[in-house]
Specification:
Blueprint: E1 7-12, E2 16-19, E3 25-28, H1 30-42, E4 46-51, H2 62-67, E5 73-74, E6 78-79, H3 82-87, E7 89-90, E8 95-104, H4 118-139, H5 145-156, H6 168-197, H7 208-216, E9 221-224, H8 230-235, H9 240-252, E10 266-271, H10 272-279, E11 286-288, E12 294-299, E13 301-302, H11 318-327, H12 330-347, H13 364-389
Parallel strand pairs: 1-4, 1-5, 9-10
Antiparallel strand pairs: 2-3, 6-12, 7-13, 8-10, 8-11, 8-12
Subcellular location: Cell membrane
Transmembrane segments: 118-139, 176-196, 363-387
Organism: Nephila pilipes
């Protein structure tokens, strides 16, 4: 196939170019700058043909333009799906990306509660509240329930317990409890220290099945890019929960347009690369799921039989230059640069190198634990005063 005197390139209207003093065009944007490197290496003239994503018209996307022979190649990265491979050709894969979702993490609860889960807290409190009854009715101890409860709580906090003349089985029971109290205190201290160092903020949904169930209950929302092929993929998926998720997004016209749509009760499904880019300013506030919906191989679409993809002269092929630029790490460098520019534009990020001291919010868990300790100590003091006034012997 004979080559034309210039390469026709389909590019979106958002492409930004500027003229240099020598009459050359400088490109901005990831795909544009990448292709600019290749075209300068080819040393061939080219023509930029813009397209506008719309619901009608002849130029709705680069695929239509390439099929209608209005363009030879496109800047845009496309997923190499089976259906597209029948209509157009592709430059060999130079990037892979998986489709997943991002959701905002929940606001931090009181930190000291994170040391144990709910079931452990229930079992621990049940043991502490029931042990005084066991001591009173099983061994007939002379201490009251409140007095025994205070002593048991004190043993958990490392305080000694009062002893009395009693059978050996009573002392064995006390010894077992002291071992349990010591072990419990060590576990809580270790877990509490680690949580204060690295706070834990987990979302309620961590995979697509949980997300689909949450959306079905009408208390969660899911957003997807309006022109994404994920709609067809989800609706016709073999798994029922993914079908429900796709149909819900289509039914409610929930299309992703701004980062604020990623919230504690709303998720955005997109490529991991895009999600990491738009959440990188405050990445500690967002959760990107490890559940992969689909792994896509991305490449540049081009016209079938395009002469510059492969040819007799390997130094004069588009495929050769694309591979060299990618393998040399230049595409990765451009990706990082453009990701940072987009991040600043989306979030208004301003670099602030001033070190900030710890705030009360950072240590609220420690303060709450401290106040609880003071409250328990005051309660013990009041109980001892009351029991002394009633003539109850205390140590």
């Amino acid at each position: 196939m004979e080559c034309s005197d210039k390469i026709r390139i389909a590019t979106p209207l958002i492409t930004h170019t500027s003229k240099t003093g020598g009459g050359y065009q400088n490109f901005s944007g990831l795909e544009e700058r990448f292709l600019d490197m290749v075209l300068k290496a080819l040393k061939m003239p080219y023509e930029l043909i813009s397209f506008e994503a719309s619901s009608g018209g002849n130029r709705t996307d680069p695929i239509d333009m390439i099929n209608k022979d209005e363009a030879d190649v496109s800047f845009s990265l496309m997923s190499m799906t089976h259906n597209l491979s029948h209509a157009i050709d592709f430059i060999h894969v130079y990037l892979e990306d998986d489709q997943t979702f991002a959701i905002k993490k929940l606001d931090a609860d009181p930190t000291f509660l994170y040391s144990f889960d709910l079931s452990t807290w229930i079992l621990t409190l049940s043991a502490i509240l029931s042990m005084p009854l066991i001591f009173r009715f099983l061994f007939g101890t002379k201490y009251t329930y409140i007095d025994m409860l205070i002593q048991l709580l004190g043993s958990v906090l490392g305080q000694p317990m009062s002893t009395e003349e009693s059978p050996s089985k009573y002392k064995i029971f006390i010894s077992v409890w002291l071992y349990f109290a010591k072990f419990l205190a060590i576990l809580f201290s270790a877990a509490f220290s680690s949580i204060l160092t690295v706070p834990s903020r987990s979302p309620k949904v961590r995979n697509f099945e949980e997300l689909s169930n949450a959306v079905a209950r009408q208390n969660y929302k899911c957003f997807i890019h309006e022109k994404s092929v994920l709609f067809e993929f989800l609706i016709h998926h073999e798994k029922e929960y993914l079908q429900r998720l796709g149909k819900d997004v289509v039914h409610h016209n929930r299309y992703f347009s701004k980062i604020s749509q990623i919230n504690t009760d709303s998720a955005v499904v997109s490529s991991r690369r895009v999600l990491q880019m738009i959440t990188s300013a405050e990445q500690e506030k967002y959760f990107i799921s490890s559940d992969v919906l689909e792994l896509w191989k991305l490449a540049m679409p081009m016209k079938k039989g395009f002469c510059l993809k492969k040819g007799n002269n390997t130094n004069y092929t588009l495929q050769t230059f694309v591979t060299r630029v990618n393998n040399g790490g230049l595409f990765g460098k451009l990706m990082k640069e453009e990701a940072f520019k987009i991040l600043i534009r989306l979030t208004g990020l301003q670099l602030d190198e001033v070190l900030k001291p710890l705030s009360c919010h950072d240590l609220i868990g420690a303060f709450i634990a401290f106040l609880i300790g003071l409250g328990l100590s005051f309660l013990v003091l009041v109980c001892e005063i009351v029991m002394n006034k009633r003539g109850v012997k205390t140590d």
